[in-house]
Amino acid sequence: MLRFLTAGESHGPALVGIVEGMPAGLTIDCELINRDLARRQIGVGRSARMRIENDRVEILGGVINNQTIGAPVAFKIANRDYENWKNKIVPPQTIPRPGHADLAGAIKYNLLADLRLVAERASARETAMRVACGALARILLAEFEIEIGSHVLEIGGVRAEIPDAPYPELFARAQKSDVMVADAASAEKIRARIEQVMRDKDSVGGVIEVIALNVPIGLGSYAQWDRKLDGRFAHAVMSIPSVKGVEIGTAFANAREVGTRVQDEIFLNDKLKMTNAKTQMTNDERKMTNDKIKFTRRTNRAGGLEGGVTNGMPIVVRAALKPVSTTMTPLQSVDVAKREPALAVYQRSDFCHVPRACVIGEAMVAWVLAEAWMEKFGGDSMEEMKERMSE
Ligand code: EPS
Q1: CA spacing 20 to 30 A to 60: which of 13, 200, 327, 364?
Q2: What digits encode the pLDDT tens for the residues 347-370?
Q3: How far apart are CA 344 and CA 208, in angstroms?
Q4: Given this structure, which CATH class describes domain 3-264+299-390?
Q5: What is the pLDDT of residue 278?
Q6: Burial of 384 (0-12, 13-18, 19+ CB in 10 A)
């Protein structure tokens, strides 16, 4: 069994994470983890905190000479901002921000005297450690050629055009843009939308899409509710702060159509049996096809999952992020100490977190896939796993 836990506060000395269950003998390149951490810091509309932090992971256990040894892997990411907070006298926060965990969290943990204690842990700062743990899952999956990428579909109601290109190219193009949008003209429009919202002292949300490629048929199971992989993706991705909706494939559009128009019909993968087959496929087919299998689909409306089991097509998970709840324009709230109406007080926050959320979505999707992978092919060492794969 694979699992991870994180700890640490937004303004504490560090975030820590423990990953348990990684097979021994996996080569860990720390720079791959740091690259994902840097991707979490990008984007127009990000928080001023990102100018202070330069997130880098330190490995405290479980890896020797760049190889996992079967022991728990322990990570640390230092909070550079801690230096600015450790001796600071901060007046208690008593006005909960609508949309945040402030009020419900303070009532739950009896922290009404200072709501800041809720935000310390509820803060999206914690996602830095998730990205590190997810990067480890990604390193494991890469050994088996599984690739995970993402891009932004829309922000603040402005939808991006999606270029007709194979997924790896789409990911690369999105990564080049500071809004994680693959089409350059759409990126321009979306950037303008975010900048407008910043001038308006508001915040804005959007929709991201995470895709996993080269996933074999048969991960997950239909046999029990909690083994269905679509449900497990939904849980993991929904747990990202501000995500309030998850869609697998084109689920919401499918819901408006008749049944004969939304299933992904099954074809024999004839073209792939021929030599030089790939050149005969259209771009779309190439994008959709897992060339290790004998069957193919010309569409992927199911997002690579049927009955909660991977079907060999790319896994497509979309997430809807509500706008960040902290806004410069104050919202109506209540002072819980004085028991009187009050306006929520602005605190440093993102105006738009959607581009940054992409790598967090990738981390959670990678995590669930790695879990499912270990359930099916798991072993105590990489060697053992590779032997099982070749059986
Ligand atoms: C974040 C760190 C936080 C926030 C933001 C994300 O830092 P601070 O609270 O010091 O400004 O900038 O968190 C939120 C959006 C939130 O709602 O808490 C980070 O590292 O991603």
Answers
A1: 364
A2: 888 999 999 999 999 999 999 999
A3: 29
A4: alpha beta
A5: 40
A6: middle
| Ligand 1 center to 66 CA (angstroms) | 31
pTM of the full predicted structure?
0.94
- The pair of three-digit structure tokens given for residue 70, joined into one six-digit string: 């079967």
Contacts of 21 (CB under 8 A, 6+ apart): 1, 2, 3, 374
Instruction: State how far the Cα of 390 lies from the Cα of 262, in Å rounded to an integer.
Output: 35
Nearest CA to ligand 1 atom 13: 124
Gap from CA of 49 to ligand 1 centroid (Å): 7
Atom of ligand 1 nearest to the CA of 350: 15
Tokens of 50: 């990102």
Atom of ligand 1 nearest to the CA of 122: 18
Span of 45-49, 56-60, 239-243 with lowest mean pLDDT: 45-49
Ligand 1 atom index nearest CA of 119: 18
**What's the 48 CA to ligand 1 centre distance in angstroms?**
9
- Residue ID of nearest Cα to ligand 1 atom 4: 349
Residue 231: the pLDDT is 98
Inter-residue contact 288 to 300 (CB < 8 Å)? yes
Can you give the residue ranges of every domain in the chain?
Answer: 3-264+299-390
- Residue 344 C-alpha to ligand 1 middle, in angstroms? 17
- Tell me how far the alpha carbon of residue 60 lies from the centroid of ligand 1, in angstroms: 25
- What b/e sequence results for 271-281 when a residue is b if at least 16 CB atoms lie within 10 Å of its CB, and e otherwise? bbeeeeeeeeb
pLDDT tens, residue by residue, 65-107: 999 999 999 999 999 999 998 888 989 999 999 999 999 999 9
Torsions phi, psi for 352 (to 5 deg): -145, 120
